[in-house]
Structures are given as structure tokens and as C-alpha cells.
Design a protein that fits this description.
Elements (H helix, E strand, L loop, with lengths): L2 H12 L6 H8 L8 H10 L2 E8 L1 H7 L4 E5 L3 E10 L2 E6 L3 E5 L1 H8 L8 E8 L1 H5 L10 H5 L6 H35 L2 H50 L2 H5 L3 H42 L1 H19 L2 H27 L1 H6 L3 H53 L5 H42 L21 E8 L10 E8 L4 E6 L5 H8 L7 E6 L2 E2 L5 H6 L1 E4 L8 E2 H5 L8 H10 L3 H6 L7 E2 L8 H14 L4 E5 L7 H14 L4 E5 L3 H4 L4 E6 L2 E6 L1 H7 L2 H9 L2 H4 L1
Parallel strand pairs: 9-16, 9-17, 12-15, 15-16
Antiparallel strand pairs: 1-6, 2-3, 2-6, 3-4, 4-5, 7-8, 7-10, 10-11, 13-14, 17-18
Helix pairs in contact: 1-2, 2-3, 8-9, 8-11, 8-16, 9-11, 11-12, 11-16, 12-15, 13-15, 15-16, 20-22
Protein name: Putative hemolysin secretion transport system ATP-binding protein
Subcellular location: Cell membrane
Organism: Phocaeicola vulgatus (Bacteroides vulgatus)
Length: about 725
């Protein structure tokens, strides 16, 4: 999703200027579908690049392209081409996998979009003087402070844990000396009593180690759970403070992945980091012990360990690329399986079982290929590492044995060294694991910080009006709005409108005319690109969004039913339900008889984990939810489009009484829903084309008349 801004960031850095991904994302106007060339071009121009997007063939790419450039990859991705040294050496930077080298055939397979003309898309960028005059972003230090603040409340437990780790380190340190004592003192002097005493001491140390490890585990569990809850709770709290516009540009999977990133960071903070500190101390202490026994053995140990570390780390990049590919295919596999299960009715209706199964098998084949490559790399890494380790241990054993023969050390010292070598393998592996997990934690933390760096819907310290007028006109003054890029097609154009207080205003128009967009502006989900929306004499932006929505009863097209009881779904705003108001709302929404027919009545669980409801029943519960709030302002977006005629008639009659003294805005297609409105607004391609009552608009025989005529046989029913 962020491949476009990432490519632009890489090219900006190539020319010596740094811009954060957050800045470039905002300038690129990302949508749920990710980046677009138009958005990337807009961002590039804003920071001082001259841009050009062209179709090219291979020869033109080699001869005429200004490098580095951005190219469209696999029809759904963007990468940077840095250099083309030969037909077999094309250096690219992929936002997902890093720097890679392709040969001509592989490159063309991914790049060529138009197979017929054998051309692909190239996006060229050249810096202008403005690029160097602009002030770039300041690089942020790695945000450790945000992590460590979660450890501060647990200082006491951290002190206990570090004490336990230190005790454990000294207990481990004592064992090789006791082993040496058994051989050098007990066996040499042939004193059974000394051997017995040393063995008892060893047993006591082992028991102490066991108790210490249990204590450490308990502390870690206690601290981990608390930090985990706080960590994710803070993240969810931040998410809920973000404006709706953020969620409209993010896929659910992307947000869920960032929540999973919290778990990775929490694990790194509470497990990997602390264990690595202990491992570092253990490694240092045992290295000193080996150095005390023999400096020659210690130096060889360091050389062997360094070679082992270099060997393991040399595979990190390949593993990272394969992990990215596996993650992408695994996501496709999960989505495909969900689609297979949920769309079985359509699959059977269209007899496409074989094709859908082949789609799934194709994903499995790709996963199989990735897993085979991962297995080969893991085996090579593991076998090579084990071989290096064994050679190191054998040579150290040889050096120790020859030292015993020469009388430079005792047999007990040699056995102690062997014990220490065995103990050193664990901290060494933990160190390597720390490097891997720290990389993952850094990536996860960067992704999470993208959320924390976004401004809240109501920023802290900004004072907004919380006293919402109960009965005021809503006024649109020259309002123009477009989603994202200001250069994109406008969803609303020059809207001048007065929604009168205490009256019912209906908004009609064809699909895509801007009806729902206008409603979202009313609710403060978005702000106008130009113009102003006022409640009375004050701009809507002057009022607290939270308090404004508290005064609004809203039914949106995509209204959500929670996995909870019917009562809590209707009275969602209250912790303690007002059952009189609850039953009143259900009666007006004509859902009370259905609820009472259920065995558990209002306590029946509904939603994804409960009783299944028809679309009409869901809409009636959503209408009841809006009524329960007893709002001063009511906004309904196609609130009855799933209802049968009988239910709709009853509900509309009930609502007419409820509307009294309230400001109501209805977005609808059905004649029965809008004909009694005090004012009808007709939108067409984002513009107001007609305003009036049902009768006056019919008599004009304009756009509204055509809408009604398309819906009904006008001469018979109007």
C-alpha cells in the first residue's frame, strides 16, 4: 500500500533530501487501493520534482530514461530502477524486498503491462531548484522513549528480575568451579567426603537455579501481561481518536497487522530484550572465566564465535525477502479460503468449483516453492553454523588437552572449560535471535508510530464548543469537496444550502451524485475542501465532534450490528439501559413484536456471533438505535431500503410523529420516504440542480420528475 511514497522517499534521498513516509503519504493522497501515479506525481511536484509518466519499450528504457525512475511492477506495485548496467544486471529497489538485481527476461516479465505493444509504464523524476530550496523533514531518532515508558511503572518488578538474573548468573558461574574441584581435589586426593560435599553443593546450586528460574518466569508472566494490556489499550485508544478519514483509506487487514505489531514489540520489550541483557552478562562473565584459564583458548573462542555469527547473519537478507513473500502469499491464501467458504452459494450457482479450487492450488504451489527455498536456506544456515561450532569446540578441546599434557592446566580445568563452552552456546544464539527480533521490532515500531504521529480528530489543548444548539439551521456556504487529492474529481461542487431547524429535508439523486458525501460532511467525518458548513452562526469545525455526534441520531447505509444482545445494540450509548426508552424505540422501529417473539427477548445475542438477522431486521434495529438517543438532529442514509412496503409504511408513520421539533435530513431513493419532506434537495454529479417540495418539483418535470418516473409508472401512481 505504501510502495509509491516509499519509492519517492528513496529517490528524494538519492538526491540528498530526506522526507518522512508520513509526509509523502499525506501528499500522495493514499486510498484503500494504495498509491496511484497521479498521487505520486502530486507528491513529487510538491517537494520540487519535475515529473513525466510515459509508456516505454525496453530499448527506450535503456536509451531515454533519466535514472533513477519509478516503474509500475506486476500491475499492482511500484519499484525504483537505479541502474541498467547490462541486459543481465538491472539494479532495482523494491519497497517490500530491498535492493535486488534482475536479468532482462525476469525484469520484462514483471514490468511489461501492455503485452500487445510490449511496453510498460515509466515515471521519471528530475529535481528542480525548488527541490533544493525546500526545507526537508528532520530525521527522527529511533523512538526508544515510547517503549521504555511502559517499563517505568514496573520498576519494582524489573529490580526483582535483574536481581534474579544476577543470582542466576552467579549460580551458573559456580558450577564449572565445582566440577573442577571434584576432579582436581576430590579425585586427586581420593577423599570421598570431599566429593560428597561438592556433589551436595552442586545439587543445592541446581535446586537454587530451578527456584530462581521459576521466580523469573512468574515475574516475566506478571509483567508481560500488564505491559501487553497497556500497550494494546493505548494503541486502540489512539485509533479511536483518529478521524473517520483515516479508516476510509486503510484496509482492515492493515490495521489488524499493526495491532499484531504491538504483540511483537511487547514480546521484544519484555522477553527478548531482558533475556539478551542477561545473555550478554553471562557471555561476558564466562568469557572472562575462559580467559582466566587460558588466554590462547579465549582468543580462539572469540575468532570461532565471530565466524559463526558472520555466517548466520549472512543469511538474514535472504530470509527477510522470503519472509515478505511468504507473508504476502499467506495473506492471499487466508483471503482465498475465506472467499471460498463465504461464496459457496455463488460458486455452486455458476458451476465454477474447479476454477476456484485451481486458484487455491496455485497459491499453495507458490507457498510450496517459498517453503522449499526457506528450508534449503535454513538447512544451509544450520548445517554451516553447526559445522563451524563443532570445529571450534574440537580445536578448543585439542588446545585444552595439549595444555593438560604440557602441565599448563589441570584435568579439572579442562572439564570446566568444556562445561563453559556448552553454556556459551545459549547466549550466543540468543544474541543472534536478538538481532533478528530487533529488526522486526524496529519495523513494527515504525508502523505503529505512523499511527501515533497522526493528529487526533480533536487535538489535545484545542478548545472546542461543547454546548450544541438544540435547534439551529445548518448552512452550507460555497462548499466544494473532493476525497484526497484536490486535483481529483470533486464529489460536491459549490453547495449553497440551508437545512432549516425543526424541518424535514430530503436529499435525492442518482447513485454517485454526492448524497452520502454531503451527509458525512454534516457529521464532521470530513471537512470541506473549500467553503464552510455552519450550525447557526458558528462553523461546524468550531464544535466538538464528539458532542455534536452525541446530539445526532444517525442511520448509515453500512450501519453495524455488534455481537451483543439486542438491548445493548439499541442502547449502545448507555452503560445502564433505560428500558422505557428502549421499548419506545423498538415500537417506533416496528421491531418490538419480533424481539418479543424470541425466547430471550431483548437479551437475545445478535451479530456475527449470535442470532442471524435479515437486512430488514438489521435496519429496524439501527433505526431503533437512532431513536433511543433521543437526538435533536436526525440523519438517515437509505435507512429503509431493505424494508418491505408494510414495515416501511408503519415506520415512516411512526417517525413522522418523532420528527416533531427535530431537524431531520433524509437521503433516500424511495418516493414514500421523501414525498412528505418539507424540502427536497436534488443532487446531480455533485451539484444542487433542484430545490422544492414534492409537488413543485413534479410540476417542473425536471431531474426529480425523471427520478420518480424511473421508479414508478408516474401516470398511475403519482
Amino acid at each position: 500500500m505504501d510502495c509509491g511514497p516509499t519509492c519517492l522517499q528513496m529517490i528524494a534521498e538519492y538526491y540528498g533530501q530526506y522526507y518522512s513516509l508520513q509526509t509523502l503519504r499525506e501528499k500522495s493522497y493514499l486510498t484503500r487501493n494504495g498509491s496511484s501515479l497521479k498521487g505520486i506525481s502530486s507528491a513529487a511536484k510538491s517537494i520540487g520534482f519535475k515529473t513525466e509518466s510515459v509508456w516505454m519499450n525496453w530499448e527506450q528504457l535503456i536509451q531515454n530514461t533519466h535514472l533513477p525512475c519509478i516503474i509500475h511492477w506486476d500491475n499492482n506495485h511500484f519499484i525504483v530502477v537505479y541502474s541498467i548496467k547490462s541486459e543481465n544486471k538491472i539494479l532495482v529497489a523494491d519497497p517490500a524486498f530491498g535492493k535486488l538485481t534482475y536479468n532482462k527476461d525476469d525484469f520484462l516479465k514483471h514490468w511489461i503491462t501492455d503485452k500487445k505493444n510490449n511496453v510498460g509504464i515509466v515515471f521519471q523524476l528530475k529535481p528542480t531548484s525548488k527541490f533544493y530550496e525546500n526545507k526537508p523533514d528532520t530525521r527522527k531518532d529511533f523512538p526508544f522513549k515510547r517503549l521504555f515508558k511502559y517499563l517505568k511503572p514496573h520498576k519494582k518488578y524489573l529490580c526483582f528480575l535483574m536481581t534474579a538474573l544476577t543470582i542466576g548468573c552467579f549460580l551458573n558461574l559456580s558450577l564449572p568451579f565445582l566440577t573442577q574441584a571434584i576432579v582436581d581435589i576430590g579425585i586427586t586426593t581420593q577423599e570421598n567426603s570431599i566429593i560428597l560435599i561438592i556433589c551436595i553443593a552442586q545439587l543445592m546450586l541446581i535446586a537454587g537455579q530451578l527456584g530462581n528460574e521459576l521466580f523469573q518466569s512468574w515475574l516475566m508472566l506478571h509483567m508481560t501481561q500488564r505491559i501487553s494490556i497497556t500497550f494494546i489499550s493505548d494503541f486502540l485508544n489512539k485509533l479511536m481518536k483518529l478521524p473517520i478519514a483515516f479508516f476510509d483509506t486503510k484496509l482492515t487487514g492493515d490495521i489488524m497487522q499493526r495491532i499484531s505489531d504491538n504483540n511483537k514489540i511487547q514480546k521484544f520489550l519484555t522477553s527478548t530484550l531482558i533475556s539478551s541483557v542477561f545473555s550478554f552478562v553471562t557471555f561476558t562473565v564466562f568469557s572472562i572465566v575462559i580467559g582466566r584459564y587460558s588466554l590462547k583458548i579465549f582468543l580462539f573462542f572469540l575468532i570461532g564465535s565471530s565466524i559463526y555469527v558472520i555466517w548466520i547473519l549472512s543469511f538474514l537478507k535472504k530470509c527477510r525477502v522470503l519472509n515478505f513473500r511468504e507473508f504476502r502469499e499467506a495473506s492471499s491464501n487466508q483471503s482465498n479460503l475465506v472467499q471460498l467458504v463465504t461464496s459457496m452459494q455463488e460458486i455452486k450457482l455458476n458451476n465454477c468449483e474447479r476454477g476456484k479450487r485451481w486458484e487455491w492450488e496455485n497459491i499453495q504451489f507458490k507457498l510450496y516453492q517459498i517453503n522449499i527455498k526457506s528450508l534449503v536456506i535454513a538447512q544451509l544456515q544450520g548445517a554451516g553454523g553447526a559445522f563451524i561450532n563443532q570445529i571450534k569446540n574440537v580445536i578448543i578441546s585439542y588446545l585444552a588437552a595439549t595444555s593438560v599434557v604440557k602441565g599448563e592446566m589441570t584435568l579439572g580445568m579442562m572439564i570446566a572449560i568444556q562445561y563453559v563452552l556448552g553454556q556459551l552456546n545459549t547466549p550466543l544464539n540468543q544474541f543472534l535471535n536478538f538481532i533478528k527480533e530487533s529488526q522486526e521490532a524496529k519495523i513494527s515500531l515504525e508502523r505503529i508510530n505512523e499511527i501515533y504521529d497522526k493528529p487526533d480528530e480533536e487535538p489535545v489543548g484545542v478548545s472546542k464548543i461543547t454546548n450544541i444548539p438544540s435547534c439551529s439551521n445548518i448552512i452550507f456556504q460555497n462548499v466544494t469537496f473532493c476525497y484526497g487529492n484536490p486535483e481529483a474529481e470533486k464529489a460536491l461542487k459549490n453547495i449553497n444550502l440551508i437545512i432549516e431547524a425543526g424541518k424535514v429535508t430530503a436529499i435525492v439523486g442518482t447513485s454517485g451524485s454526492g448524497k452520502t458525501t454531503l451527509l458525512k460532511l454534516l457529521l464532521g467525518f470530513y471537512h470541506p475542501t473549500s467553503g464552510i458548513v455552519c450550525i447557526g452562526e458558528k462553523s461546524l469545525t468550531d464544535y466538538s465532534e464528539k458532542y455534536w455526534r452525541r446530539c445526532c441520531g444517525v442511520v448509515m447505509q453500512e450501519g453495524f450490528i455488534f455481537s451483543d444482545s439486542i438491548a445493548k445494540n439499541i442502547g449502545i450509548i448507555d452503560e445502564e439501559l433505560d428500558y422505557d426508552r428502549l421499548h419506545y424505540a423498538a415500537r417506533l422501529a416496528n421491531i418490538d413484536s419480533f424481539i418479543n417473539s424470541l425466547p430471550l427477548g431483548y437479551e437475545t445475542k445478535i451479530g456475527s456471533e449470535g442470532c442471524g438477522l435479515s437486512n430488514g431486521q438489521k435496519q429496524r434495529i439501527l433505526i431503533a438505535r437512532a431513536i433511543y438517543k433521543n437526538p435533536n438532529y436526525i440523519f438517515l442514509d437509505e435507512a429503509t431500503n431493505s424494508l418491505d412496503t408494510t414495515n416501511e409504511t408503519i415506520i415512516m408513520e411512526n417517525l413522522q410523529k418523532f420528527y416533531s421539533g427535530r431537524t431531520v435530513v433524509i437521503v433516500a431513493h424511495r418516493l414514500s420516504t421523501v414525498r412528505n419532506a418539507d424540502k427536497i434537495i436534488v443532487l446531480h454529479h455533485g451539484e444542487i440542480v433542484e430545490v422544492g417540495t414534492h409537488e413543485t418539483l413534479i410540476s417542473h418535470q425536471g431531474v426529480y420528475y425523471q427520478l420518480i418516473e424511473n421508479q414508478l409508472e408516474l401516470n398511475k401512481n403519482v
